[in-house]
Design a protein that fits this description.
101 residues; alpha+beta; 4 strands; 27% strand; single chain; Alpha-Beta Plaits
Length: 101
């Protein structure tokens, strides 16, 4: 089942322990900028239970187009793109197919 073209964007980061506080500050700024864009639904910040150096920022969007357009916004370029550019190089946008329960 496809849920209205919604997407989740999952970015993962390898963050040295000494950089944790700065990473959280940068992630908060990035999410704040992204959250002001049309189509933003919400976010989660997570840390791997088995590897405290591995972090993720997950955002949910009404569709891939909303996310792509958000990335071209000036505020996002200033506050989110620097963080996103440090993400592990792998696919990040996933179409939501099932809402789960």
């Amino acid at each position: 089942m496809r849920l209205n073209g919604a997407v989740i964007v999952i970015t993962r980061y390898s963050v040295p322990e000494a950089d944790t506080e700065a990473f959280r500050t940068d992630a908060d700024a990035a999410v704040a900028a992204l959250s002001r864009r049309p189509g933003f639904r919400g976010h989660r910040l997570g840390r791997a239970a088995d590897d405290p150096l591995l972090w993720t920022v997950v955002t949910e969007w009404d569709g891939a187009g909303y996310y792509r357009r958000a990335l071209s916004d000036f505020d996002v370029k200033v506050n989110a793109v620097p963080l996103l550019s440090r993400a592990i190089d792998e696919p990040t946008a996933f179409e939501i197919l099932d809402g789960g329960a």
